[in-house]
Amino acid sequence: RPSRRESRNCHNDFKRGGPREQRHKEQGATADGMSASKRAASSPAQGGPSDAGSAVKRLRSASPANGMKYVVVCGGTASGLGKGITASSIAVLLKGCGWQVNMIKIDPYLNVDAGTMSPFEHGETFVLDDGGETDLDLGNYERFLNISLGKDNNITTGKIYQQVIERERKGEYLGKTVQVVPHITTAIGDWIENVASRPVKSGTNPDDEGHEADVCVIELGGTVGDIESMPFIEALRQLQYKIGRDNMFLVMVCLVPLISDEQKTKPSQHSVKELRSAGFSPDLLCCRCETELLPDVRKKIGMFAQLSPEQIISVHNVSEIYKVPLLLKSQDVAEIVANRLKMYLPKGMPDIRDWEQLCRKLDNLEKKINIAIIGKYNTGTDAYLSVTKALQHAAVSVNRKLEITWVNASSLEDGADKAEKDVAIAQLEAANGLLVPGGFGDRGTEGKVLACAYAREKKKPFLGICLGMQLAVVEFARSQCGMAGANSEEFDKSSPHPVVIFMPEGSKEVMGGTMRLGTRRTILKSKDCATAKLYGEDFVDERHRHRYEVNPKVVPELEAKGLKFVGMDETGQRMEIVELQDPSHPYFVGAQFHPELKSRVMCPSPLFVGLLRASAGQNPFDELEMPQTPRKGRRSTG
């Protein structure tokens, strides 16, 4: 294998060179916020091709050995300010400049991963190709950049301490007293450098070999000043010292609240002060605010932070999160980062025309479509974040403005309050399509079963995911096959008809990391099934997260009554996809896997597109504007 430097010399997608000319303050900026003269100043002073396919420019001699540049995004004042969206949007701009981007999320909690955390407290668990159960921000990274990450791209305190303690037990520290500094901080820095240097897979193709990254964007979870974050901040400070100040760019996301119609700067000032006390000074402040940051407020914050007003970025509320990259582009964020890191910025970059086109389309959507999600974690939508994003991606592809109705599954059950039940049934009636997502535990499951029955009987377009697919099978077994009391072993171990059973290889003692996780191949039995028409393939590669599966012993009886299992795993024993064989029903599909996890902004999930098309009264299998099959990743500007 050629050395990293030899590979980099052959890499024709990236161009950067020596220090650029000083950034000029210009007037007469164009619509995207940058003047023509400022664009010219962003290129090297002497010659050099400006297209994204020219040869690699020479890195300055002070670059680290692997040539990696780092952009660190941290937060102050409060959590939930949108660090993940900010980090993803900055990465979009960097990728739009022609650079390959890797991403890392640091979560300071002691859990080894997010697999055992409550969706009420932490939101959804996002599953990666390699089976990693991670923070939902990794889903944002993948959706924004159209890349596929691995479990090591999510660092937690639990993982770091586990690694260090295992080394200590093996005697690798040679009798030293193991301490937070230097052993924990060194382990964090080594982990970051190791993961940053790994190839990044493009698209959603599990067979993609990936591309070496030029820039690694790191999001530090929590807020600066938290006790649990201190080792990570110190590790990043040590890493900056090791690689050189010009190879790390620090972004701080802070809050500028609006109180009595006045934008208050004190929270941002205190955030910067706290960061400085940890040995860091920010290179850019992204100020979260309700309305655009006023010029005087920019100057005031900049004076305290020792930054120019151009380095104080207004990240005010926008109608769609997909407009944040455009918002940052209009304030020259890519140029500021490139200038500070001494990276060559090609003329006319960043090129994010795909995002601009997407946002124009979002603004012009008029016809609405309503999808009812029958769930049990409806307090806060983060528990189903990937599902809602996949629905939005698919809605845009069918030219509809998405409206989601949250139906509490428990409200549909017998014994529920009559008024609540009437409202829930009315919500099902008003919806254009129904979706039953995954979940764990028996609360609300009978309500989900009733929702499956409603979709089947009333001819409502339906998509069941994981548990939703299993409960659709339970409902069909009860109503159409005469299996009274049919159920899943997860909810009724004494059921006379266990149509869903515990997987033999699963563990009932250890909860974390013991499910069937990650990307698995599903073989489609027929090219005429709805799934094959949507994917355009005779197999699909999608991500899984489950402990229970459909009992293969009941499959013949279910299929005889019209519920066809059209997709199986490679052994032919595990049921993966089910479809209702009813010509009068517009769309009734259930999947054991989670198709939402591979849906992308520019490349929606085929099963979700089928649901939205059927819900919009369109032909679900219309080949016009077919979505990209998840197995065939594509490179995109964004």
Question: How would you explain this protein's 3D organization?
Answer:
With 638 residues, this protein is of the alpha/beta class. It has 20 helices and 25 strands. The strands form six sheets. It has a nine-stranded mixed beta sheet, sandwiched between helices. Strands 6-2-8-1-9-12-13 form a seven-stranded parallel beta sheet, sandwiched between helices. β3 (126-127) and β4 (133-134) form a beta hairpin. α3 runs parallel beside α5 and α7 crosses α8 (230-243). The longest helix is centred in the first third of the chain and has 17 residues, at 180-196. The protein is globular, with a radius of gyration of 26 Å. The two termini are 30 Å apart. The model is unreliable at 1-65 and 624-638 (pLDDT under 50).
Summarize the structure.
The chain is α/β, with parallel strands linked by helices. The strands form six sheets. A nine-stranded mixed sheet has the order 15-14-16-17-25-24-23-20-21, sandwiched between helices.
Please outline the major beta sheet.
9 strands, mixed
Mean of residue pLDDT values: 85
Distance between the termini: 30 Å
The number of E-state strands comes to 25
Helix content: 25-40%
Arrangement of strands in the largest sheet = 15-14-16-17-25-24-23-20-21
Instruction: Tell me the quaternary state.
Output: single chain
Shape: globular
**Tally of DSSP helical segments:** 20
Q: Which percent range describes the beta-strand content?
A: 15-25%
| Radius of gyration using CA atoms only | 26 Å
**In terms of per-residue confidence, which ranges show pLDDT below 50 for 5 or more consecutive residues?**
1-65, 624-638
Helical/strand content category: alpha/beta
